[in-house]
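quick one, 347 residues, struct below
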Amino acid sequence: MTTVAAYAVPAPKAPLERTTIERRPVGEFDVLIDIKFAGICHSDIHQAREGWGEAMFPMVPGHEIAGVVTEVGPGVTKYAVGDRVGVGCMVDSCRECDNCKTGQEQYCTGGGMVGTYNALDKNGEPTYGGYARAIVVDENYVVRIPDGLSLDVAAPLLCAGITTYSPLKHWNAGPGKKVAVLGMGGLGHMAVKIAHALGAEVTVLSQSLRKKDDGLKLGADHYYATSDPKTFEELAGSFDLILSTVSAPLDFGAFLSLLKTDGALVNVGAPEEPISLNLFSVINNRKTLAGSMIGGIAETQEMLDFCAAHGFGAEIELIAAEEINEAYERVLNSDVRYRFVIDTATI
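---
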């Protein structure tokens, strides 16, 4: 076992504090990663505060991990010491169900994927995430970070990047398609960049026009305020795809009205509260209300290569570990442009 420094949530809703955790010995197919940077995802806050239900404590959050391999097991073939790598939202799955075999490990039906934190591994031990100095992960759940991406801006791609890339690809965002991104935050800003790079016509739908200049710089063609009722009149029936990145309850009927016939409203943000829906909102014009969760390992690698090829990572604010609790409050107040990233050397 290896003892490493980390930041943990000792109990539900408690502030994070510095501590130490034990990492398992490097097994035959494992890699030991010296974590350089870890992104702060809104999911970390939901789970640390039990917004999505009962969780396991102490909790070390973090599933946007970028670092360097420092040790490999004797059976490892994919990575070598010195490689630049990343770890996202999962560190294992059953590997035998149809979804795992087709590269959709995130939808594992053989017991579910093993989360990078707030989960139990196959030995029944709790997993601890990336707010730490090092992590041990099976090579099959590690991805390579291309040389064209610096590790700090690459870290958020391991969740925010793949969470938006996967549905944009699945619902065929590209030339000739009108795509709306609902929310201009950690997920939304990546959705704008990726949809633009895929060739779609991109519109941002945000509560206000406060971030309009940023949205246009990142690749949006249009920017509208959802607080203005005229937006829903002007844009009725406009979009092939709306990607909702917000984690607050919405008037889904209003946003479904913005879709064309056969359009889809896809949710990647997960509100803590149940939603209500008049089914005529989807029955009329054969619309789809759907969801999507991260992506498989192969698709995550594809996303990283795509971002590197197009020359972009996330827009980040780099912080020291002692600023994590403040960063959580700022995320809740939408006061970040657009992803906090922890310099783990400060842990």
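The longest strand covers residues 30-39.
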